[in-house]
Specification:
The chain is 31% helix and 22% strand. It is an alpha+beta fold. The chain has two domains: 56 residues, 2-Layer Sandwich (Alpha-Beta Plaits); 172 residues, 3-Layer(aba) Sandwich (Aminopeptidase), CATH 3.40.630.70. The model has no long low-confidence stretch (mean pLDDT 95).
């Protein structure tokens, strides 16, 4: 008897299968498109697209899920020192598309190419213009973009997608600031999606899919912080490291 499971194909509507019934590694469905409305609906249900060039769009809800609770973020001594030195300046939503383009170029162990394809950049940029996708950007003293992260925010949750660093610790600086924003806005968690040793060293923990989906459902009962985040940059100046 085959151990393969049937993976449903998405249609023209934006209805997803129940993510609690996804395969253990997280594969839930395939097909559909990257219409921003579909993608936003997916995130609100704990589902995200992730696929390689030439493949159909694959939709995931992994078990376990890697989550960073803001109060559990670990700022190691060297990072705290760098934050206090203020050699970097952090901005919000100034160069969203450039951040995505840099993330697409990051070499990753055991992986050729990038899942951040041109159509992915187009979709998330549209969500950025609509106030749901955001970037935390790190600039050096010559005002060059040297690090950052981007993700989706809906309700009281931030779904981190990718980070990059052109200078040592620049992505960690971006993440530290995102954590502080999450605390200020009473966000429940930063979703890190797939287990990662790097992020676990910074305090992220693995939780069961059911727990994640339960907590996510609660976050979606709140408005969150939609719109362009540039107006909140003053919050970053008030952080005491």
């Amino acid at each position: 008897m085959s151990n393969q499971r049937f993976i449903p194909r998405l249609g023209f509507d934006y209805i997803f299968p129940n993510p609690r019934r996804a395969m253990k590694e997280g594969l839930l469905a395939y097909g559909g498109d990257l219409n921003p409305d579909r993608v936003l609906m997916a995130y609100r249900q704990g589902i995200f697209p992730w696929y390689n060039e030439g493949d159909p769009i694959l939709w995931w809800s992994p078990d376990p899920r890697l989550v960073l609770y803001p109060d559990q973020f670990k700022i190691h001594r060297s990072l705290r020192k760098k934050l206090r030195q203020k050699h970097f300046r952090v901005k919000l939503d100034r160069n969203f598309e450039r951040v995505m383009q840099h993330c697409a170029k990051v070499p990753r162990r055991g992986q050729e190419g990038s899942w951040i394809l041109p159509e992915v950049i187009e979709c998330y940029t549209m969500l950025h213009y609509r106030g749901f996708a955001h970037s935390v950007e790190v600039y050096d003293e010559s005002d060059e973009l040297v690090g950052g992260l981007y993700g989706i925010s809906t309700g009281r949750a931030f779904f981190g997608e990718s980070m990059f660093s052109l200078k040592s610790d620049a992505s960690k600086v971006a993440l530290a600031h995102m954590v502080e924003l999450a605390k200020a806005w009473d966000f429940a968690f930063i979703d890190c999606q797939i287990p990662s040793d790097h992020l676990q060293r910074l305090g992220a923990v693995k939780v069961s899919r059911d727990r994640f989906l339960d907590e996510l459902e609660e976050t979606q009962q709140h408005l969150g912080v939609p719109g362009n985040w540039q107006e909140y940059e003053q919050l970053l100046q008030e952080i005491q490291w």
